[in-house]
Amino acid sequence: MSSDKPAPHFDTVNLHSDRRDKPGHGALHKPVHTSIAFEYEDARDLAAVFQGRQSGYNYARQQNPTVNALQNRVTRMEGGLATAAFSTGMAAIGSTLFALLRKGDHVVSSSFLFGNTNSLFNSFGNFGVDVSFVDATDVANVENALRPQTRAVFVETIANPVTQVADLARIGELCAQRKILYIVDNTITTPSLFSPRAVGASLIINSLSKYFGGHGDALGGAVTDTGLYDWSGFPNLYDNYKTGPASQWGLTQIRKKGLRDFGATLAPEAAHSLAVGSETLSLRVERASDNALALARFLQAHPKVSKVHYPGLPQHPQHALASRLFRHFGALMSIELREELDCFDFLNRLEYVVSSSNLGDTRTLAIPVAHTIFYEMGAERRASMGIADSLVRIAVGIEHIDDLIADFSQALA
Ligand SMILES: *Cc1c(COP(=O)(O)O)cnc(C)c1O
User: Fold this and answer.
1) Ligand 1 centre and the CA of 339: distance in Å?
2) pLDDT tens-digit profile of 40-51?
């Protein structure tokens, strides 16, 4: 490619990702490779692959051609260096942190977290890794929590379910100054709305199960190295993974100690579904974001709704920040109902809005948060995360907006 040609845009890059790597036969999709084992005509090559002297496939728990094509796609979408895919988003988070942390380490995390990530981080204490939870909408809280042993800062972009927006750029600057690994979970914004690399993220987490695949039919997760972190200064890397350029060291250890040893491998069939689903990512996210903004305005004005949490509303505490950072405000919102309204009755009256725990589907889904996904953590922790008992999370889909508003209108009447 000549250097005076402008760089292609996000959708173009995504749509042509498989083709660019020449899947063979002129095919436009990378096919589903189901083989677990890979043959070597010269056994010396097999040894070279095992010893990391040669690239190649050895066993499908670690590498698979279909999964690799998806990894390349995520890397291009995030503008990163390389990606490792996992069976779920939780596997990506858990395997990454287990691979990189050691006893005595400290992590600073946003307290506004996906429920299972919160649960996982609470278990880390049992393994000698201390996690401090702070209100990451203000960088000062992150800075005050840093210790000499702090190895990583973990934040989500738009937090689920109350939609707090982390002070992403300032936290990035802080982590760069202190040479601390900065991990950003981009699941709710996706690479189509936000590029964590632009705010200095070292590693980007995506649950591919949500908007990325987008149809509620395949689980997956990914961690992408943006290439911004200098791994030569990271104290927890094993010497035998420090081969080749230092930019590769972190992801090599995540692949070996995380993916290989924990074994939460993405299935090639799921990788294929996720790749195909992702081709309409920005169309879906834009439509769902437009729907969410219209619905948020409608609900905000409704007398039976006491509160609407949505970053696209001017009343949202981080509205200005979200306007600067994200291309749209996303499709996730939550509402609090007036006391006379029972959240279960309300949900049961909705016709098109499905009572379900997922998000990022094409269909609109809703869930009574305190009674389900945030039930296990208890009332005290819920209160600290701003989760009211009547809170209903709405993951807005791509239905026609008139039908959605009519449905909410009749259910609230
Ligand atoms: C769903 C979700 C995850 C976990 O992803 P799974 O694929 O369900 O394991 C992690 N982070 C966020 C923000 C999520 O919404």
Assistant:
1) 31
2) 999 999 999 988
188 CA closest ligand 1 atom index: 13
Are 35 and 156 part of one and the same domain? yes
**Contact 18 CB / ligand 1 (< 6 Å):** no
Q: Which residues of the chain have pLDDT under 70?
A: 1-3
Please give the pLDDT value at position 189.
98
How far away, in angstroms, is 90 Cα from ligand 1 center?
6
Q: Which of 258, 278, 298 is the endpoint of a domain?
A: 278
pLDDT tens digits, residue range 277-297? 999 999 999 999 999 999 999
What is the chain's length? 413
Instruction: Give the Cα separation of 169 and 235 in Å (integer).
Output: 25
114 C-alpha to center of ligand 1: Å?
7
Q: Is the CB of 361 under 6 A from ligand 1?
A: no
Three-state DSSP class for residue 145: helix
In the chain, pLDDT over 70 holds for what percent of residues?
99
> Which pTM was predicted?
0.96
Distance (Å) from CA 210 to ligand 1 centroid: 7
With contact defined as beta carbons under 8 Å apart, do 219 and 38 qualify? no
Last residue of a domain, one of 229, 254, 278: 278
Q: How far is CA 305 from CA 285, 292, 299, in A?
A: 25, 15, 6
> Ligand 1: which of 112, 118, 121, 187 to mutate, most ligand atoms within 8 Å of CB?
187
